[in-house]
From TrEMBL:
Subcellular location: Membrane
The protein's role, per its UniProt record: May be involved in iron transport and iron homeostasis.
One Pfam family, short name: FPN1
Name this polypeptide is given: Solute carrier family 40 member
Family annotation (SUPFAM superfamilies): MFS general substrate transporter
Length: 485
């Protein structure tokens, strides 16, 4: 049966499983809200222990190391577990890790911070070591959940052959993510300005425990409202099992660690090779370069820096919320830029804008004395403004990668990019560990700005010297041709 053009448009805009999609939004909101609260809470709390960037930098350092090593393996092993069971397990691991981390920080705060005379005295504490391990588990499970819901579930529920419905679903997930960041940082920042840190962490822990049954129920609801469409996803394939299992008996599977390690290294090598050969490599590398910016962006290092400078926690939370609000604004601005300039020039505009504003922010920071707070607020305002360019490129860059990367390799290359981005943050956090004094923040800011400027230069150079393959993928009159590979 041939559908009319109007019927085809209607079908393209109608989700395959509308009810399941709404349940997914609810689950995504609940999980993301807790995750954003925790991402703001832990660096603010750890910063209270000692006037140094070192403890916060060390936790982030090992988290990024875990992501760099586990990133390429994450998607590979997730493909061999039933999705619903994996969803339950990952939520349990993530929230349990958050609760353990909160307990460790509360223990440190209630036992007095006077004993931590030096930053290194914090690092050798048993509770801090547990905090590092729990932080690694929390991030790995959080990233796995994000990949599952944003790249797999939403496609099944909206419909891979219904582009308008899928685009709307992706936009909704993006808005939920930004809203969660605004709400999480603002709520915890206000609480932190009114109550002591340990009390605020107890509130966050209560929120985590209440969220676990909610996301479990919503996950089951997603599957039921979608007629069990997720049940048949990612059941273990026999060929994969044979690689992971050495000698099986009826009813028993014996796992060979040696085979798992070999397969792991093979997966990592394959991911890096595919990443290197992608036709839009400069655009992806520019995105990775932006991850070197750990100082002039909302995050653990910036939060610790502001707390040490006596900025009110409510203002710090408001700063993070405004940065997230710029992400929402970018969803509208980037669409206009693509329409007027074309996808590649729109990406260049976002990068150049971010690099220019961060250069001004660096100038303000270098001219600001420690006791002055008014210039510091100008500095923060410029950081907020720079997020407009950052998020614009983030959205446009995603479309560039979707256009230039074959669908058969999208997940592998995307996961490998996450791993390389974690390596970038890992390197910068290593530098932060060495230059851990708050007085050295200006040096970290200079490195961050240089990397953003480098990303802008790299992308503009690629744009001004197009290859034959680039010309096939993108036209220079403002429109793009979608890859059919």
């Amino acid at each position: 049966m041939v559908l009319s053009e109007e019927e085809q448009d209607t079908l393209a805009a109608t989700p395959a499983h509308r009810g399941g999609l709404y349940a997914l939004y609810g689950s995504y909101l609940a999980g993301n809200l807790v995750e954003r609260v925790w991402n703001f809470a832990w660096p603010a709390a750890v910063a209270m222990l000692h006037p140094s960037l070192l403890p916060v930098a060390v936790v982030g350092f090992f988290t990024k190391l875990a992501m760099f090593i586990g990133g390429p393996l994450l998607g590979e092993f997730m493909d061999h577990f039933p999705r619903i069971r994996a969803y339950y397990g990952l939520n349990l691991v993530q929230i349990s890790s958050q609760l353990v981390s909160a307990a460790m920080i509360i223990y440190a705060l209630t036992n007095g911070t006077a004993q931590y005379t030096t930053a290194t005295s914090v690092l050798v504490q048993p509770w801090f070591m547990v905090l590092v391990v729990a932080g690694d588990m929390e991030r790995l499970s959080g990233v796995a959940l994000g990949v599952t819901m944003e790249r797999d579930w939403v496609v099944r529920l909206a419909g891979a052959n219904r582009p308008v419905a899928l685009a709307k679903a992706n936009a909704m997930l993006n808005r939920i993510d930004q809203f969660s960041e605004i709400a999480g940082a603002t709520i915890f920042g206000i609480l932190l300005s009114k109550y002591d840190t340990a009390t605020c962490l107890k509130f966050a822990s209560g929120l985590m425990m209440c969220t676990l049954p909610v996301v479990a129920i919503l996950g089951q609801l997603v599957n039921r409202l979608s007629s069990g469409v997720l049940d048949d996803i990612n059941k273990p394939a026999p060929s994969v099992s044979e690689k992971l299992v050495a000698g099986t008996q009826p009813g028993r599977r014996v796992i060979n660690p040696g085979n798992i390690v070999k397969k792991g290294f093979k997966t990592i090598k394959h991911g890096w090779m595919e990443y290197k050969e992608q036709p839009v490599l400069p655009a992806s590398v520019a995105s990775v370069f932006l991850y070197f910016n750990i100082a002039l962006a909302p995050g653990s290092i910036m939060t610790a820096f502001l707390m040490h400078h006596g900025i009110s926690p409510s203002i710090v939370g408001g700063f993070s919320g405004l940065c997230a609000f710029m992400g929402v604004a970018a969803t509208f601005i980037s669409a206009t830029l693509v329409k007027k300039l074309g996808i590649l020039k729109a990406g260049a505009a976002g990068l150049v804008f971010q690099a220019s504003v961060l250069t001004m922010a660096l100038g303000v920071l270098c001219c600001t004395r420690t006791a002055q707070q008014a210039p510091l607020y100008l500095f923060l305002s410029l950081i907020v403004l720079s997020r407009l360019g950052h998020m614009s490129y983030d959205l446009v860059g995603t479309q560039i990668l979707q256009t230039g990367i074959p669908l058969s390799k999208a997940n592998l290359i995307g996961t490998t990019e996450i791993s390389i981005a974690s390596l970038a943050e890992f390197i910068m956090l290593g530098v932060a560990i060495i230059a851990n004094d708050v007085a050295h923040f200006g040096f970290l800011a200079m490195l961050s700005t240089s990397c953003v400027v480098g990303a802008a230069w790299m992308f503009c150079h690629w744009l001004s010297n197009p290859t034959d393959q680039q010309k096939k993928l993108f036209s220079f009159d403002g429109s793009s041709h979608h890859s059919t590979q």
